[in-house]
Amino acid sequence: MSSLTPIVGRMTLQRPPAEPVAAAQAAISLRGVVKRFGELTAVDGLDLEVPSGICLGLLGPNGAGKSTTMRLLTAQALADEGRIEVLGFPVPRRSKRARALMGVVPQQDNLDEELTAQENLEVFAHLYRVPRGERRRAVDEALEIAHLTGRRHTRVDGLSGGMRRRLLIARGLVHRPRLVLLDEPTVGLDPQVRAELWGLIDGLRSRGTTVLMSTHYIEEAERLADQCALMSRGKVIARGAPGALVAEYAGEVVVEHYGPPERLAEVEGVARAAGLPTRRTGPSVSVLKAETIPPSLDDELGPDGVRRAASLEDVFVVLTGERVE
Ligand SMILES: Nc1ncnc2c1ncn2[C@@H]1O[C@H](COP(=O)(O)OP(=O)(O)OP(=O)(O)O)[C@@H](O)[C@H]1O
């Protein structure tokens, strides 16, 4: 996994320009973007538009190109082909302007351990050129959003893992960005901390901040994303609201059949011959779009199936051929 590191330390930032980004304008636009690392094409003709004000979940298996895409948006990586615009600014040509308006939350925790929560935010408020007279309020606001007001004077090495992750997000928000890039925001965290962070990310979106979040946790995308872009081998292979993707690729109902390998192969054969998508899950084979199975085929598939609602996970597995976490 590659990480998305904050770039502010290397920048000469201006305050965000006064002109607002029109609501109709895409916050992010990538057209035909290609990024190669030697022989390997990590991003392969990527087209992606993210409208302002939504949370878009960039979903895909390891190596799909999610982190590289994020790095292209901050100009930490440079595209070999294609056109990139962030908040109306062409990248990399005007990336400094774009960066000043976006918050970047890296996958790796790189907080300053010896400083307090508040001091970490003050450093970033200064680097992002938040005017001196506004800094105190900006830091207070970021602490409040991250529910860390009561811990403002605690050194980072005295914070829990969940608090540190919240502080990392707060740090990306201290200059009140219009767009936030979150690279795998909850990877490796326990379920309770993950749920806490989901609340925080959802709050951002409710405030009108555009969020682009890469994840390979299906549940995370399902809960937070207004839209998901499913990436595989450097391309977006499906895009839409989670519910719409499920309806299109998995239908309403899935029937799981359990049994010995020959029984699973038989079910797969019958379903596929009828044009129904299937997926393997360890000891079972699932038949998707089961609500469309005619009674005659139902008999052929046999009575041993267990019915359940179709999910985004089914879509992910069917389209990428990969397992999920
Ligand atoms: N700096 C680099 N040099 C060489 N190859 C790279 C570099 N960065 C990424 N890659 C390769 O590009 C491909 C896409 O990687 P990327 O990190 O963008 O995928 P990802 O979807 O973010 O995966 P993960 O979920 O594991 O973070 C991978 O095959 C990766 O090994």
Would you mind describing this structure in some detail?
The chain has 325 residues and is an alpha/beta fold. The chain folds into two domains: 8-241, P-loop containing nucleotide triphosphate hydrolases (Rossmann fold); 251-309, Alpha-Beta Plaits. It is 34% helix and 26% strand. The protein contains eleven helices and 14 strands. The strands form three sheets. A six-stranded mixed beta sheet has the order 6-7-8-3-9-10, sandwiched between helices. The protein has a four-stranded antiparallel beta sheet with strand order 2-1-4-5. A four-stranded antiparallel beta sheet has the order 12-13-11-14. Helix 6 links the parallel strand 7 (179-183) and strand 8. Helix 3 packs across helix 4, helix 3 packs parallel to helix 5 (161-173) and helix 5 packs parallel to helix 6 (191-206). It is elongated. Adenosine-5'-triphosphate binds next to strand 2 and helix 1.
Summarize the structure.
The chain has 325 residues and is α/β, with parallel strands linked by helices. The protein folds into 2 domains: 8-241, Rossmann fold, CATH 3.40.50; 251-309, Alpha-Beta Plaits. It is built from 11 helices and 14 strands.
